[in-house]
Design brief:
By secondary structure, the protein is of the alpha+beta class. The chain folds into two domains: 150 residues, no CATH class; 35 residues, no CATH class. 31% of the residues lie in helices and 18% in strands. The chain is built from five helices and eight strands.
Length: 193
């Protein structure tokens, strides 16, 4: 579990050890506005864990247009998260509303999606499927049994295939897609989702 004191906010400067796009106070204000009582009932450390999980989910699930902003200090190894970003030609990125987002900003849509995914994470825990419950043929392992002597192994599979597919979280997914920053790479072409 993450503690609130473990949160390292990406503030738009390309923070090397950043692990969240939002802090608990920001999330508290946001979820109070929408009346999300599940968020209000959680303690600060549960909220911190949810924010870290949400940020990790965004960075692993989504492929964004542009490139990660280079850190100003050449001695650093680089920023820890996918944002901030710039266009490939070093210009500012433009969202679906035509607003420009500089290389020193994390767009509001990314922060709001983090807050929505964090709410889901309170109930669901980790947001990505656990790859340890599938075998190499993408079959879900329902039950395993091992016996040491004489050696015996039994694996029971579910009829469900492809459990590695990404789960969909309607509200947060829509926020990310509607931002205009999502990149779909197909056959060498990039198109916005």
């Amino acid at each position: 579990m993450a503690f609130e004191s473990d949160l390292v906010l990406e503030d738009g400067t390309g923070v090397e050890l950043a692990n969240t796009y939002a802090l608990v106070a920001t999330a508290d204000t946001y979820h109070a506005l929408y009346g999300n009582t599940a968020w209000e009932e959680a303690d600060a450390d549960q909220k911190a864990t949810a924010l870290v999980n949400a940020t990790q989910y965004i960075d692993l699930r989504w492929s964004f247009v542009g490139v990660v902003t280079s850190p100003a200090d050449p001695l650093t190894t680089g920023q820890g998260l996918s944002w901030p970003r710039t266009a490939a030609d070093s210009s500012n990125l433009v969202d679906c509303k035509g607003d420009e987002w500089g290389e020193d900003e994390v767009p509001t849509q990314i922060i709001e999606a983090t807050l929505e995914y964090a709410l889901v994470s309170l109930a669901a825990g980790r947001l990505l499927p656990d790859p340890s419950v599938v075998d190499t043929s993408d079959r879900r392992i329902k039950k395993t049994r091992e016996k040491i002597g004489p050696i015996e192994e039994e694996i029971e599979y579910s009829d469900v295939r492809s459990p590695r597919s990404i789960r969909k979280y309607a509200t947060a997914d829509r926020i990310v897609r509607a931002s205009g920053f999502v990149s779909l790479v197909s056959g060498g072409r990039t198109a916005r989702a």
